[in-house]
Amino acid sequence: MRIRLMAVLAAATLASGCGLSGPTPSERSEQSGKITVGEVSQQTQSVKCTQDQWALTIDASTGPGRARAYLQIGGVEPVVRTVNLENIDGLNGIAGGDVGSAEASVNGGNTYKITGTAVVSDPNRPGITNDMPFAIEVPC
């Protein structure tokens, strides 16, 4: 009886580890998101959403560029705490807290849309920042 129990536990342990190795999957193209800053839009190549209790971190990559957003969830609508835009066609920006503005909504239970105004810098015009509209729409 004891040998049979150990065999069952060993098989369960082995089976529970299946599928936990290998590369991190990327989103399918039909679920692709989009990041827009001003007039520039880029399709996402991958999106990673991580939830820890009532916080959701969204990390969306467009290749050389990326957008990261930190949301507080659990209410009627998510609340944006911070947004960081990096190298979206050379533009870098931030929003959240006392900088810029940002709002979030959830469509269909799994598509997050974050919109607002970010304080954006352009490497072609160092030392000068502009307020620019932005939008991040990604599946999670």
TrEMBL record:
It holds the Pfam family Myco_19_kDa. Keywords: Cell membrane, Lipoprotein, Membrane, Palmitate, Signal. InterPro entries: LpqH (IPR008691). GO terms for cellular component: membrane. PROSITE patterns: PROKAR_LIPOPROTEIN. Residues 1-21 form the signal peptide. This is Conserved lipoprotein/antigen. The lineage of its organism: Bacteria, Bacillati, Actinomycetota, Actinomycetes, Mycobacteriales.
